[in-house]
Amino acid sequence: MSSATTDAAISATPDDGVVRAADGTPLKKSLARALRREKTRSFLLIAPLLLFILISFIAPIADMLFRSVENNIVEDTIPRTVEALKEWDPDSDELPSEDVFAALHADLEIAVKQRIHTRLGSRLNYEASGMSGLFRKTGRSVRRMDEGNYREQFIEADEDWGELETWRVIRRFSAPYTAGYFLNAVDAERTSEGIELKPENERIYLTLFNRTLVMSLAITLSCLLLGFPIAYLLAHLSLRTSNMLLILVLLPFWTSLLVRTSAWKVLLQQQGVINDFLVWIGLIDDANRLVMINNQTGTIIAMTHILLPFMILPLFSVMKTISPSYVRAAKSLGANDWTAFWRVYFPQTIPGIGAGAILVFILSIGYYITPELVGGTSGIFISNRIAYHISSSLNWGLAAALGTILLALVMLLFYVYDKIVGIDNVKLG
Amino acid sequence: MSALPPYSSTAQITWYYAFRVICGLIFFFLIFPIIVIAPLSFNAENFFTFTPKMLALDPEGYSLKHYRDFFTNPDWQQALWNSVRIAPVATLLATAFGTLAAIGLSQSHVPFKSTIMAVLISPMIVPLIISAAGMYFFYSRIGLQGTYWGVVLAHAALGTPFVIITVTATLVGFDRSLTRAAANLGADPVRTFFKVQMPLILPGVVSGALFAFITSFDEVVVVLFLGSASQKTLPWQMFTGLREQISPTILAVATLMVAISIVLLTVLELLRRRSERLRGMSPG
User: Which residues form a coiled coil (chain A) (predicted)?
Assistant: First the structure.
């Protein structure tokens, strides 16, 4: 800007006490503009990734949350029946009217043509067993039915149509949204008397959730037990030595998860290295080799090994910052080694313990690969059940509901982690 | 803990050595499973334990046959090729998007900074099985399930948090007056970025890229659900191998992968030192 225009700008501006920039605009306005430009620029830099994550990651998670309550299949497959059933009182002792049966006939004729009636059958089978067979069987005879008097024809095709419970189930699950998957996921069911838990010996999901939490806790504790001495040692050695030893911690951290899991599978086998060694030194008999794999022991050992670096690294970084003069002061005041450690040193490591423990716990409750490979049937986690429902039983709604509960649990824990450590303080290596 | 003072009591001396022995055992626990697979992978028999011949150090007890199997078996070769095809593209996507976003996030006055950060970091926090389930549902809706690009996009999403974290960490020590000086000397923003900012944050970008690469290269849960048989990657092949018929070829593959990790770890350590030197911090 030349000095002439600057002078002109200055002379042109009235002397009203407002501080102005060189070009005459009030300083406040020009600052706001610069700030806006900076905000736009940083937002433009973030936008591509934000969009990418929203589409490739957040949308799938939202889809899963949606699927855990979505239940359009009943209304989409038999719309007329759902409409006609609204008139029927499920608490009455009478079967639905002839209109409902006529509507069902019309719906099923179309559904059979499109071959979608079996899908509805499998959907309703999650709520009441026998529905899948009922729909398949009826589907075969629906084309042969004559016009009129559908009620008798249906009951003739399968006597379940004469049961009040069949109609109650259809009516109960005809809404486009359902809490049924969530109830299933916590082993509850909606009966005519309201929501109640299933009998104790049928509670598979609560057992699994419980086991996942208990085993994750066991893994966290053993990580803490093994990680604390290592972090302490690393923090108290000279920099050169501790850097060398840190490599022994980082190497497992960097090694593929599958490599470590396969190593444990090989080591823990009954014909594996550990059992061979124990037999060789005579600690156990050849006939009584230890069973350390395909059970909870296997899962706990392998996962402790896999997650141990996640405990050591945060502990180490906290211990590094603890000044040795506190312990020296305690000792010079007469504390013995144990008191100085327990009353002075240990309380200062609590933030590290908290960070490491929550991190290990969060990671372990969502683990899938290791329990699947070394856990057998007694050592599997809730994630293995989710995987089973996605790929084998195809009950996606239930898988989504289980996933949602697990996600809520992890989010809650992560919130705690954020309060203690702060999300920005996550460090790698 | 450094040296034992001369006036230590017997109990103190005992504890001093006992503690070291305990730590030694824990280090052994950490490192032994990774080390032990290397000699086992040279086993001449199809066993998963040391044969008497191996213990006697008899050369006949050792062979390269499991490595030969890996390099000739079409299943393993296809899996290796798929991994090599997927990981670099996912890494490239994650690094490009992640670096830009980290630079944007490091500026002051970013609205909703913590919310944005939480969203961008979330792929690292959400358990893999849940990510895999959600992606399986959603990608099959939009026709990406079972495709090459579906797997690449998923892996890129999983890798970005690592890039953001490492690049943000290098940007913390970044001197803003350098970019201002460049602008003052007449460089446009693009030129400033490539000539001034990029060389300085490069260690962070590269280590973020390595993290993203290893995330994709090691990832098995998501690819298991999202991929079809023609996207079978190396970890997937290992997973099926471990679950169904466990063949000693897995040990050969595992040994090769440990070698790769050692190389990556070395590169990372060198980068960390370089970054600290560039930023004027004393090397650790």
Answer: none
